């Protein structure tokens, strides 16, 4: 009985926390982990997601203030995507369910075809996918701003060494984990079930820091 209890406890801990006590920080597209204490002075100048101004599926303005004192997961999709986006959105739904009652955790999906994905299109998409408006924002807005955020700040598209301009299409399966101070704390394959499980565990770990 004691052995069974230990095994059950071990499994529960594995589900709720990651393999490390603290997650690293990331500051470039190479995603080389940087291990810093949360009180480190280096974090004052460390890479952060900048201010932004976008519009969600309800026509509401979404800024960094929307995510103040929140952890969030960001990705980049488009509603007419026949390839990777449906699976990415399904896995975002898994995250939504995992943190459904947790007000500290939010989700942010950016449309990479903002001229096509109007507010009404996003609303229809969100309704079809079972999006909880208070938990998950699917946003449209200025294409240049969205692409700049995706490539130069979230580093969501990992084509290291390839130079792209704003006319090149942004398409990536990656989910990016952001902490309450707008620092990147992880990147995950949004198509991979095990990666999503790891992301859930890492969010639990982040909440314990």
TrEMBL record:
Residues reported in the UniProt entry to bind Cu cation: 81, 85, 171
Domain of life where this protein originates: Bacteria
Disulfide bonds: 81-85
Gene Ontology terms, MF aspect: metal ion binding
Keywords associated with the record: Copper, Disulfide bond, Metal-binding
Transmembrane segments: none
Assigned protein family: Belongs to the SCO1/2 family.
PANTHER family recorded: ELECTRON TRANSPORT PROTIN SCO1/SENC FAMILY MEMBER (PTHR12151), LINALOOL DEHYDRATASE_ISOMERASE DOMAIN-CONTAINING PROTEIN (PTHR12151:SF25)
Name of the protein in its database record: Protein SCO1/2
Organism: Dokdonia pacifica
Lineage summary: Bacteria, Pseudomonadati, Bacteroidota, Flavobacteriia, Flavobacteriales
């Amino acid at each position: 009985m004691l052995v069974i209890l230990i095994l059950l406890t071990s499994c529960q801990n594995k589900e709720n926390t990651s393999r490390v006590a603290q997650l690293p920080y990331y500051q470039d597209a190479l995603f080389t982990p940087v291990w810093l204490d949360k009180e480190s002075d280096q974090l004052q100048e460390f890479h952060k997601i900048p201010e932004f101004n976008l519009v969600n599926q309800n026509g509401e303005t979404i800024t960094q203030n929307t995510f103040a004192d929140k952890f969030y997961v960001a990705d980049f999709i488009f509603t007419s995507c026949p390839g990777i986006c449906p699976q990415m959105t399904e896995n975002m739904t898994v995250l939504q369910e995992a943190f459904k009652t947790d007000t500290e955790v939010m989700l942010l999906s950016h449309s990479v075809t903002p001229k096509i994905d109007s507010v009404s299109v996003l609303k229809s998409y969100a309704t079809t996918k079972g999006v909880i408006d208070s938990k998950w924002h699917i946003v449209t807005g200025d294409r240049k701003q969205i692409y700049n955020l995706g490539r130069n700040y979230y580093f969501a598209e990992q084509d290291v060494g390839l130079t792209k301009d704003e006319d090149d299409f942004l398409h990536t399966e990656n989910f990016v984990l952001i902490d309450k101070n707008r620092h990147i704390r992880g990147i995950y394959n949004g198509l991979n079930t095990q990666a999503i499980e790891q992301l859930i565990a890492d969010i639990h770990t982040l909440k314990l820091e």
